[in-house]
Amino acid sequence: MAKEKKSFSKNFWTVIGMEFFERGSYYGVMSIFSVYLVMQTSEGGLGFSKESVGLIKSIITPLLYILPILSGALADRYGYRKTLFFAFVVMSLGYFFAGLSTTYISVFASMTLLSVGAGFFKPLISGTIARETNPQNSSLGFGIYYWSINLGAFIFPLILIPYLKSFSYTYIFFMAAIVTGSLLFLNFFAYKEPPKPQTQKSISRVLKEIVLVLKDFRFITMILIYSCFWILYFQMFDSVLWYLKEYLDMTAVNQSVNSFLSLFVSNPDWKFEAEHVTVVNAGAIILLQLLISAIVRGFKPLPTMIGGILIGTAGISMLAFSMSPWVFICGLFVFSIGEMTAHPKFIAYIGEIAPPDKKALYLGYSFLYGVIGSGVGGILGATLYVQIIEKQGNPPLFWMIFGAIGLFTIVGLIIYDRFIAIKSK
Hints:
Blueprint: H1 2-6, H2 10-30, H3 33-38, H4 50-66, H5 68-78, H6 80-100, H7 104-132, H8 138-165, H9 170-189, H10 203-214, H11 217-233, H12 239-247, H13 251-261, H14 275-296, H15 301-321, H16 325-353, H17 359-364, H18 368-390, H19 395-419
Helix pairs in contact: 2-7, 2-8, 2-9, 4-7, 4-18, 5-6, 5-7, 6-7, 6-9, 8-9, 8-14, 11-16, 11-18, 11-19, 14-16, 15-16, 15-19
């Protein structure tokens, strides 16, 4: 492994650094965004309704998944450095204006700007890594890439976000603007344009491929079923945060952590708050992804997907049966195990059901699960939260509904494999 690490180019490590700081900024903001928007102005928030926040999330998050279709083709044509320059400028402006925004329209516009920049940035890092690695080190290279994403999502919410929000939530947006904007210097002084592909996709070709993929009933049916599981995932950035802030007493957790910290510092005052939900998810992946991947390496994709989704469903269902802070954290951790078990095998399964001559194309559009999952998850989660938890005072029912969505996903996958996918074999 040490030999493989030495084989990576300077450009590889440059984009790994970009990914770490960009994702750290993004997840740092998103770890508190939905809470900040609904908090009363007297608490430092903006006082928006949860339904309005759900609408914002159901529009800006799908953009992050859709835009890479076009941005990748544009980057191949006009160059990665120029496209990265555009992405960093637009993202930093989006964060900056979001920090200044106090009205719904201005927040919506700012976050849309951010999503456009992030959508252009997203495929360029993985594209650079693909071109800067070879068959001998690409597996390790992409492993480091995914690890850097979760490391950023772990460190920023754990350390920076609690400190910044102690002054003002707006400082979090300004921090993200500064960090993302500073990547312009890394792009200018350190990043080198990777070799261009021998064949470049035109926009018209990209649009034709979209139509081709969308016409495939088997593929789209699979995406629709699997996206139901991601409706659960996107609750981690909305309804789970509201539930934590408004209903849970985390005193027992805080006391235990502070008791441990007192061994090293005097009078610690650590508190488990909204941003730590992201920390639990990212921390679980950092700790266990390699181990779980090794365990399920030889397993068939579909049964492993089903097992992972079952674990994830069990995790979110745990919230329905207890309001204990320890059960809450355990539920988040169990859900993360399900996520990291199911998702890699989903990619493998897409490779199995895709036409032999179109595997790369279908894998390239497998991200559509995120478009549907986030598009539905934001509005659905916010609406059900208001109607069931706030108006009916029935949190268990709310979480049982999402548990049922997880079970529906499992049943859908079994039916799909039995009656639809088998026809292609």
